[in-house]
Amino acid sequence: MDTLLQAVVDTTTSSLPGHVQASLTVVVGSRPATAAYSGQLALDLDETQYEHGHGPCLHAARTGELMEITDARTDARWPAYMPRAVERGSHSSLALPVPVTGLHAALNIYSTADHVFDRSDHAAAARFARAAAHAVTNMHALQAARDVAGNLEVALQSRAVIDQAKGILMERGKLTAEQAFQALSQTSQLTNRKLRDVADHLVRTGELLRPAARR
What is the mean pLDDT of the chain? Predict the structure, then answer.
């Protein structure tokens, strides 16, 4: 997915007129980050906006509105950001919202020229933003699937060690499976330890955890 996101910003850079750089901002919760970028200028200006908490890319990501700066030297919006853009040599830019369910994102395009983007450039950039949306959606879904798989693996490992501990108690005390599980649960409550930790201790040491002595 990283390769796909990088391909989106690289294609954006090579397809639009003039000397431009592109980046992709993704906001998770309240924390923005640059997922891909085509040059240092784009990364620097993204991070300037993150530092000050405002700017065209953050506005586009959070509101879903296309933001255009035609000439940063005369634009009065975002006064903490504009001087930095001019200082770094970016005189115009586009920030397009990237529609992703559950996330805020924007495709950012920075140009060294002023008044550089026309309607056809807006349309082309919108197509790239949609491509970025598909990539980010897939990446988000993949990460969610990995999280589920990871949680499932942990759950299966916990189940295995709990079953082993139950088997030990059933053999020692001639208990039923339900009685062995209750013994583990009661020990978990008395020791204020997770059930899996109680079971793991029993499997490793052969002993049930005991409550800490009261002082």
Answer: 87
The pLDDT tens digits for 4-49 are 788 888 989 998 888 899 999 988 778 899 989 999 999 999 999 9
Q: Please identify which residue in the block is written with the tokens 């405002």.
A: 54
Residue 54 token pair: 């405002």
* CA end-to-end span of the chain: 56
Cα dihedral angle (152, 157, 159, 165), rounded to 10 degrees?
-170
pTM value surpassing 0.70: no
> Do 90 and 68 meet the contact criterion of CB atoms below 8 Å apart?
no
* Cβ neighbours of 122 (radius 10 Å): 13
Looking up tokens 């950039």 gives 125
pLDDT tens digit string along 40-93? 999 999 999 999 999 999 999 999 999 999 999 999 999 999 999 999 999 999
3-class DSSP assignment, residue 32: strand
Residues 6+ apart with CB under 8 A from 52: 78, 80, 81
pLDDT in tens, 154-185: 766 778 888 888 899 898 888 898 888 888 88
Instruction: Map tokens 């997770």 to a residue.
Output: 194
- Whether residue 95 contacts residue 65, with contact meaning beta carbons closer than 8 Å, is answered with no
3 state SS for 75-138: CCCCCCCHHHHHHHCCCEEEEEECCECCEEEEEEEEECCCCCCCHHHHHHHHHHHHHHHHHHHH
